[in-house]
What does this fold into?
Amino acid sequence: MSGTSETADRPTVRILHLEDSRVDHALVKFALQRSQMPCELTLVDTLDDFRRELASDGYDIVLADYHLPGFTGLDAWEVARVTRPDLPFVVLSGAIGEAAAVDAMHRGVSDYLLKDSMNRLAHVIQRAIEVSETRQAKARADAELADSRQRLAELAEHLQTSIEQERADIAREIHDDIGGALAAVKLDLSWVARRTAGDPALRQHVDTALEMLQHALGASQRIMLNLRPPILDQGLVAAVQWLAASFERRTGVRVLVRRSSEQLDVPREVQLVAYRTAQEALTNVAKHAQASGVDIDLSDREGVLTLEVSDNGRGMSADAMRKAKSFGLLGLKERAAKVGGWLDVSSSPRGTSVILSVPLQAAGGADSAAGGNNREANNDDQSDFV
It folds into this structure.
């Protein structure tokens, strides 16, 4: 009774049997009955009938003889691979050589079994179905993972676009509102200063206010340059040189810029990616590297834009590069991928090297497809690699 109950609980296996011998078909049926496998067998003996039954999508597995009138089991497998590539396919033959069996497995057949080992048939069928289900589950999981990654990339791009616009808006407001107001205040203070010559104490206060105001004007201009650097209008080489000079003046760390030419023909979108990568790398050097020198190499040789920022600092540990909050590095990699490039970071106790590579032909196509969008990619000036 227990065995009957277990058999009733097992799902029925729908088997498409490609066989020209009614005797062998009966032997298959008998072997499966002895193994108590619930099953439904449908017998076909021609490729046309086989193709028609496959199209019905009503089977869990195919059992196929190897030698059939006018064709072989491998011919049937080629048909099945086109119609139902996910369907398990087992070759069941009385005389299949080792070479033919190996060839069948190389072509993707699930398994093969000799007819004199019919007692193992149920096991082979069950294993082939389980392997197929596992592969299909993995394929679905891979597809879901790829879809999830695509959605994350689209979200990251959307966020970058939003922040690009926000940065441009903030820069514009600083220029139009804050910059305009500070300039007006400076004019008024200058007017007051010209009329306070007879009052040294008042003149001192006015001069102090003018000095602080000039500092505020300089700070607002620096913030605008970081948000939306107009220096890029003069080309990538000029922008990187300006960035390096500003960094050297601010930190005292020597920066040497080498370039393949004075002007690089680089799409606007790639210029922004390269500029922000150099900016992020220099920010990381200032915050963590304890370096005394930085080398920047900029080249467009062999149709590939290459930007390398190397320092002679203390380097980063492998744990630091892998830690969960390495959003600066992840952001740079996403930014590089967006223009068809890639980012490599290597580090040792002798320093850290950040290399951006972008094939210019692919990047040019992406830039055209983007409609010549001139807005910068998201990269906070104060973020870190690690």
About this structure: The two ends are 65 Å apart (CA to CA). Confidence is low (pLDDT under 50) at residues 1-5, 366-386. The longest helix spans residues 121-194.
